[in-house]
Design goal:
Blueprint: H1 5-15, H2 25-32, H3 36-50, E1 55-56, H4 58-65, H5 74-84, E2 92-93, H6 94-104, H7 109-120, H8 130-144, H9 153-164, H10 174-183
Antiparallel strand pairs: 1-2
Helix pairs in contact: 1-6, 3-4, 4-5, 5-7, 5-8, 8-9
């Protein structure tokens, strides 16, 4: 079964008797090496997009991405939302938001691999199929709209899939994905698209 790094951290708190949203500021700052200013900046972004509520709906989460990219961010934002919503509540609370953002920006390659795998594995089956690769590439391509390179997401998805599926069983395991990332580190760029690209 797939290990989701964000879920592991929040589930650890739940086992200790607390909800992910009750993880103290100091603990988040220590775990993710956040300065007070970085924490407050994340809090401000969250507050602006949640309109002061304690959780972001999927629609509100989309606002985090919209306006930052020339294309349609909806599909990509929805995939990110599903990664961040670790408790399956249909909303992202501030702690889930902070953990998700920090995992994407982590200096630890393993953190990035975990969130990237989770982003590809949209059905949470613990493996990635061709459709999931194609759908993520289409969502990524949509972010950049007409400014995107003229690529065919299906063709690129097939090439990527074939490069990652070492045992040719038509699914990519976490192990195969991790191995592929070490050979093709650009795969991790999908979790942090740059609007300036």
């Amino acid at each position: 079964m797939q290990v989701h790094c964000i879920k592991d951290y929040t589930n650890e708190k739940a086992r200790m008797g607390g909800k992910p949203s009750t993880i103290p500021k100091k603990e988040l700052q220590e775990r993710f090496h956040l300065t007070n200013q970085q924490y407050e900046d994340l809090k401000q972004i969250f507050k602006e997009n949640s309109k002061g509520k304690s959780e972001l709906s999927k629609k509100e989460f989309r606002r985090v991405y919209s306006g930052r990219f020339p294309g349609n961010a909806t599909k990509f934002a929805d995939k990110m939302f599903d990664c961040f919503d670790t408790d399956g509540s249909g909303t992202v609370d501030f702690t889930e938001f902070v953990i998700g953002i920090c995992m994407m920006d982590s200096d630890k390659v393993e953190d990035k691999i975990n969130i990237a795998f989770s982003l590809f594995d949209s059905d949470k089956s613990g493996s990635i199929d061709r459709v999931e690769v194609r759908d993520l590439l289409r969502a990524y391509n949509d972010l950049f709209g007409s400014s995107a390179n003229e690529i065919n997401p299906q063709t690129v998805a097939n090439q990527l899939f074939d490069a990652m599926d070492r045992n040719n069983d038509d699914v990519i395991s976490k192990e195969e994905f991790t191995s592929a990332v070490h050979k093709i580190p650009e795969l991790l760029n999908l979790i942090r698209p740059d609007p300036g690209d």
